[in-house]
Structures are given as structure tokens and as C-alpha cells.
Amino acid sequence: MPHPAPTPRTIHRSGPLTGRVSVPGDKSISHRALMLSALAVGTSRIEGLLEGEDVLATAAAMRQMGAEITRDEDGVWHVHGVGVGGLMQPAQALEMGNSGTSTRLLMGLIASHAITATLTGDASLSARPMARVIEPLSQMGADITASPGGRLPLMVRGMNPAVPISYTLPVASAQVKSAILLAGLNTPGITRVIEPVATRDHSERMLAGFGADLTVEQTAEGRVISLVGEAELKPQHIVVPGDPSSAAFLVVAATIVPGSDILVTNVGLNPTRAGIFTALRLMGADITEQDARTVGGEPVADLRVRHAPLHAIEVPPELAPSMIDEYPVLFVAAACATGRTVARGAHELRVKESDRIAAMVAALGAIGVATEEFDDGLAITGSGGAPLPGGGTIASLLDHRIAMSLAVAAMVCAGPVTIDDVAPVATSYPIFFATLDTLKETTELAAS
Ligand code: S3P
């Protein structure tokens, strides 16, 4: 897939951040809302859908397979589903862009339908491993032909009826779990996934919300999720909570920029996602929850964040599944802390939109932060709250979270920092820079 021209951006040291902002809809929940609505019988309504490129790739694919998806002027999405088993043969290849979640979850859906689909993606996605989903979906009967190394482009020839499996996850991956459960929707019998380590549970919550017969048990082997196949899903009205992964950038920015005091509203705090806030609090961050409530079956609160001095920690490895996407921005917080932060047990960072361990070693190095690289993590020597040197150019490597993490770091750098390409930010948080500007302007207005 051709890439658009890179969009470089230079970021200067920031004054205090103040004011109140909300974050866009949760990316994981948005993908699932579109997919399950497209499989329900009737019309679902989705409010707060993330309108980032990754989610739009899912919407386009579901349309190609027969769902009618529209957006009204108020930003509410309407999805007229085809029913489980009703997906249609797409006429063209499904373009997944940068989105691993779209790819892996859709592979699951296609696997148990009598259709054949080719999935393609950008350079980042085409370097990511797909064997982790090919293996269980092949056991269910799908015939998958991948590019060398189990990569994209690949072709999935679905099997109908597929064979139910009982599968223990070899890697802690919500995408693999969800791919199997989505395949199980159109498979006779009971499909079972055993996860020794719990991962984000949005699929389970939403499947139950759509009326699927799903049970979750905690056993000695781990969490066992059982889904009764040939399900009939009932259309829903879904309200997508704000994305904690997006909120994390604002929370770290306010924590490290002296004088900041912000309110981030509507932040999803599902315990399987909120590890970053636990880790930051262990470092001394001042984050308080206000107006705790439930939105769309998920816990949500507003977060008040005030600047606070941070100290180094050993990041508890058991937090890894609940903050896997937040390590890059946690490393930025660590770069401002007193002492040496060590994060291990996060080998999965090597296979995200970029190799996030190598990418952060290079990026932090370019702004003058000392790191030590491990196979499964990183140690970062913090500045003790002093400005970071900055002055370098960062490669974002088609990885939205590397670009946003370094944009946050740049706010406490003495010298300006150039990010070679911030276009990838649009995959998950299109209004990221506008939101940062709002927080800076609130302070400037108050001062004038
Ligand atoms: C996601 C699961 C995680 C995460 C990704 C979104 C999901 O990936 O990194 O951004 O929506 O299921 P893994 O399942 O590969 O850990």
C-alpha cells in the first residue's frame, strides 16, 4: 500500500497545561462495536465511536462484507447487520492500513464464513506476526495462505461449518482470544479459550451485551471463556467510553510539565486496561478519579491530574497485559523521574506497530536520555525533573504511540524536538495535537 508523504512536526518546550478535555472513543471497543453490530439482526446505534483510521478500516471491511454502515450529522453511527453467518464475499481485498486489531479480529470472523478474503496492510502491519491467529483458526478449519513468515498480505478461505476448539493462549493476546471467539460465533458447538494471563475483556463484555451465550470461569489454568456457537445477536445501542490509552498521553504530559492541573473526562477504566494509572501512581503521580460511573457496560471516570515529582520504580511485570500499549509513554514519565526505572516482562512490545523497545531506545537517545535495552524491556535513567536535553529528530516508524510519546517528551525538552512523521497519530487519536493546544491555550488565556 502506498504511504502518504510524511508530515514532520517540531515541538517546543511547553508551559503549564490546564483546563478540561475529553478523549475520543476507545479504539478496542470501537472495532468490536462495529463488528458485532454488523453481525446482529437489525440496526444498532453507536455513539462515541472513535473515528480514527484503524476503526474506519474495520468499518470499510464490514461494508465490503455486506453490512450497511452510516454516520449521521450528530456523529452517531448506524449499523444494519447481516446476522451471524450472513457475511458476504468481498469483491476486493480488505485494506487494513496500520490496524492489527482489524486484521486479527476480521480473520476470526471470516474463518467460519463460507467466503474468501485477502487482507493487505501498510509496511508496519505487513511486518507483524499473524501465525498466532493462523494457528487456532486453521484448527477450526480455515485455510489461510500467508506471505513468508506468516505475514500480510494473506488470504483466508473460511470453513463452514467450522470446528469448535478449546485453545489455551500461548501469548497473552486479546486479539488472538477475540479472533477465536468471533470465529466461534458462527461455529456449531462450544468454542473455548483459556487465557493463563487475563487480557482486555471488551469482547466478552460486548458479546454478552449482544445476547451471545458466553460464560467466564476462573480456574487453576486461568480464565476460561466458553461461547455457544451459531449465536443470534440482537442489535444494541452502544455508548463507547473514552480511550484510556489516549488519555495516558495527556495524563503523563500534565504529570511531567510543571504547574499543570487538568481534568480529562470520560476515561474508560476497565481494570484490564488501567495498568498505566497504577504504574504512574506508584511513581508518585497525582491522579484522582471523579464521578466514577458506568458507560456502555464499562467503568468510566474523569481524571484530575496535577504535576507531581516522580520517582523511579521497578514496573510490576504483572501489569504488562493491562498497560501493554502504554509502555512508550511510561518510559517518557520514567525519563523525568528521579532514579532508574526498570520495566521487564514486556516482550510483546517487540511486535507492536513498531519494535517499541528498539524504537524508544533510539527516540529517547535522540533527546539525550540514557537507556539500557533488554530483550523484554528497558531501563531508563531519569532526569530528576530537570528538563531533558532534546534537540534531536525522532523516527516515528509508522507507529502512532511512538509519535505521541515523543510529542509528550518534547514538552519538557530544553531544545526543540522534530518528529519525522506525525501522520500515524490519525490511526488512533486524530485530535491529539489539537487537544494539547487546547490545554496550553487555557493557561495562556488565564494569564492574559
Ligand atoms: C488490542 C489488543 C492488544 C493491543 C492492541 C489492541 C485489542 O494487542 O496492543 O492495541 O483491541 O484487542 P494484543 O492482543 O496483541 O496484545
Automatic annotation (TrEMBL):
Phosphoenolpyruvate binds at residues 27, 100, 128, 175, 356, 401. GO terms for molecular function: 3-phosphoshikimate 1-carboxyvinyltransferase activity. Pathway: Metabolic intermediate biosynthesis; chorismate biosynthesis; chorismate from D-erythrose 4-phosphate and phosphoenolpyruvate: step 6/7. Signal peptide: none annotated. It catalyses: 3-phosphoshikimate + phosphoenolpyruvate = 5-O-(1-carboxyvinyl)-3-phosphoshikimate + phosphate. Monomer. This is 3-phosphoshikimate 1-carboxyvinyltransferase. It comes from Sphingomonas qilianensis. The gene is aroA.
